[in-house]
Design brief:
4 strands; two-stranded antiparallel sheet; mainly alpha; globular; about 50% helix
């Protein structure tokens, strides 16, 4: 599946949000810190996380929904993907029953999201995180 500009911006926001809220992985809570590389470049903490979808990216109605997305370390992402019952349990615990029900209801929608508007929205959300 080809990633769009919106996919990349949305993913960046979700991973940055995880660092701002949890300091690292939203499941195992393993902290992530900026890493100074030998060549002098810095690998930001947020780039050490992956953007994980509860309901897969092919479901356009919720592909960019904040409640459908979390920032996970690679190990937690792989674990939840390969353990579907645990995936449902953890996401339900993470969101709460009401938000989970609402997410599942939105998933049944056939409304296509406004990608231009969402791109602007997520760019603004990234700026807000940078200001904190």
């Amino acid at each position: 599946m080809k990633l769009s500009v919106l996919d990349n911006i949305c993913s960046e926001y979700i991973r940055r949000r995880a660092i701002a809220e949890e300091g690292g992985c939203q499941r195992c809570l393993t902290p992530k810190h900026d890493i100074q590389k030998d060549n002098g470049k810095v690998l930001p903490a947020w780039k050490q996380l992956q953007c994980s979808h509860f309901i897969g990216r092919s479901r356009r109605a919720v592909r960019y929904e904040e409640d459908n997305l979390v920032g996970l370390c690679a190990a937690c992402h792989i674990y939840l993907t390969s353990h579907p019952l645990e995936h449902v349990r953890w996401f339900t615990e993470h969101l709460g029953e009401e938000k989970m029900d609402f997410l599942l209801a939105r998933n049944r929608s056939r409304v296509k999201p406004d990608e231009k508007l969402l791109t602007l929205y997520y760019r603004e959300k990234i700026k807000e995180l940078d200001e904190v």
